[in-house]
Design brief:
Arp2/3 complex 21 kDa subunit ARPC3; globular; single chain
Length: about 210
């Protein structure tokens, strides 16, 4: 989902950056009022490092295109949607400077897609369904978060007029849906394991 520099018109770049900067301010405002910020800072740092690795490692897929996992849905469920956004933002910056992935002008659009939309969608569907079944909520939240992020990227590319809807729907949607199912199952296992080994992590304030 990493959009490179030069693919999005500058006026659209500005819109995405404004949304991202506002979200960053909102995160730090809410974090300043939260308790146990020391634990949150440690977990956020660990998740940011893990997210860089998870989204940078290429895994072969049946589609012939290497897969990259996100880890952001896991962060959104454990720490909250704005925390998921922050981890994604930090991950994108590190990936650009160290790995040459994405871009600076498109960082706003990438953070909007893989940070804000992915985290908010994951958390919203998780909360909606987890009251019925916790594991189903984790799985559905992860899948729908990735699907909604993919749809957002499709919209961004269509507005930028760099691809057709038919091409995007036949490539991005099936590919990321496949990833979403695998990551959703993995998140169910990971969170279930955390609940047994370190249940206090799941009790931190959600931001």
């Amino acid at each position: 989902m990493h959009l490179p520099d030069g693919i999005i018109p500058l006026w659209q770049v500005a819109v995405y950056w404004i949304i991202v900067l506002f979200t960053l301010v909102l995160y730090f405002f809410k974090a300043s009022k939260s308790q146990k910020n020391d634990k949150r800072l440690i977990l956020t740092s660990l998740f940011a490092a893990g997210s860089v690795v998870a989204s940078s490692v290429s895994i072969p897929s049946p589609f012939g295109v290497p897969m990259h996992f996100f880890l952001i849905p896991l962060v959104a469920i454990i720490l909250g949607p704005l925390s998921g956004f922050l981890v994604a933002f930090l991950c994108l910056i590190i990936q650009f400077f160290l790995l040459g992935m994405g871009g600076i002008t498109t960082l706003g659009g990438n953070a909007l897609t893989m940070g804000l939309v992915l985290s908010l969608s994951t958390y919203m569907f998780y909360k909606l369904i987890s009251d019925l079944d916790e594991r189903l909520g984790i799985f559905a939240g992860t899948v729908m978060g990735i699907v909604m992020a993919t749809i957002t990227q499709v919209v961004i590319l269509l507005f930028a007029e760099v691809a057709t809807l038919e091409m995007l729907m036949t490539t991005l949607i099936p590919f990321y849906l496949f990833i979403a199912v695998i990551e959703g199952a993995a998140n169910v296992f990971i969170i279930s394991s955390i609940s047994k080994v370190k249940p206090e992590i799941l009790k931190l304030d959600k931001i």
